[in-house]
Amino acid sequence: MSYRTACDGEVYISRTLRETLEARNIGTQELYDAIELLTLPTDQSFLKAEIDLGRIIGTEGVVQAPIISLNDATSYAYRAETRHPSRVVTGMIGAETSIFSLMGFCRSNKDPDMRSYMLIGAHIGTLSPPEIWDSKKFPTKSEFDNALAYWQKNAFVYDGGWMSDIFTTTQRHVLEDAESPWA
């Protein structure tokens, strides 16, 4: 099933994304409202958009956290849709936000007039850089370094409803387990 965007494009929602949003108790109304306000890229590039819905819809899922270095042990948990762990903090609540973020890819690169995207990510709050273990998202060392700096001072707010139990490890160990070229 497709949904119409503000630019008269169409957006499909992957099954995995539907399941993830359900696991996180994120209402579909916010998703549909964001899609209606969305303007798709005209160059068929990867979609990364922050949509302001004009009303408070929840809290940020990523917050500033105590600064760590590559070898500092800190808290991690597996999020529902990830292969590698994410840095987490407990006892913190993100700021209220009106932002709903969307990510996706163009469904066809053969027709330049095609305005159709598959959503693969959506969440309440602003966009963050990719996590450090996702090496395919870092074509250059400087892009990786920027993400590393971000995740050394930010973390996900822990939610046991859709994250694994918390465990302790280091960013270096996470990178090594992910066989990152930047480890």
Query: Which band does the percent of strand residues land in?
Result: 25-35%
Principal-axis shape equals globular
Order of helices and strands: EEHHEEEEEEEEHEEH
Query: Given the helix and strand composition, which structural class is it?
Result: alpha+beta
- Estimated helix fraction: 10-25%
**Count of individual domains:** 1
Low-pLDDT residue spans: none
Distance between the termini: 41 Å
In order across it, which strands form the biggest sheet? 1-2-10-9-3
What is the residue-mean pLDDT, rounded to a whole number?
A: 91
Question: Would you mind describing this structure in some detail?
Answer:
This protein has four helices and twelve strands, in the order ββααββββββββαββα. It has 183 residues and is of the alpha+beta class. It has one domain. The strands form three sheets. Strands 1-2-10-9-3 form a five-stranded mixed β-sheet. The mean pLDDT is 91.
